[in-house]
Write a structure and sequence with these properties.
With about 160 residues, this protein is mainly alpha-helical. It has a single domain, classed as Rossmann fold (3-Layer(aba) Sandwich).
Length: about 160
Amino acid sequence: MLVGAAGAGKSTFAAQWFDDREILSSDRYREIVSGDERDQSATDEAFRLLFRDLEKRLGSSGSAAVDATNVQAFARRGLVERARAAGVPTVAIVLDLPADVVLARNAGRRDRVVPAVAVRRQLAELRRALDGAGLAAEGFDEVYLIRSAEALDDLVLLRGSAPR
């Protein structure tokens, strides 16, 4: 799963490194449900569909990339539980870029600018997730932290078959 505030680059990362069929985007599911990816009132139904499709993907191919903020523990927990039930390793790719970079990227979006107050709240949630035992205590098999725009740009992702 991808973890990071709006504007951190999760969708761009997913599009670069994963096949479109593997990417389960909360924005895409909100658009399916309501016709508008920005419609937060569609979130519950969007995630119901995302979880359904995640279970199908994990059960058949063992591979999926969940593109959502995932900055709150309860959101990550539901994804980890589904992967465990399918016998699939869980990997968190955390885009922990500096706040000024995330806020500037979000403000510069052409399609969907998230209010800065919401992005700051997401950044605070991410900080809480990374402090202390944080993500390591949540049952992930691997946690990868990307802490700069340069590291994100220079990243090389090597992918193999998911063990079954």
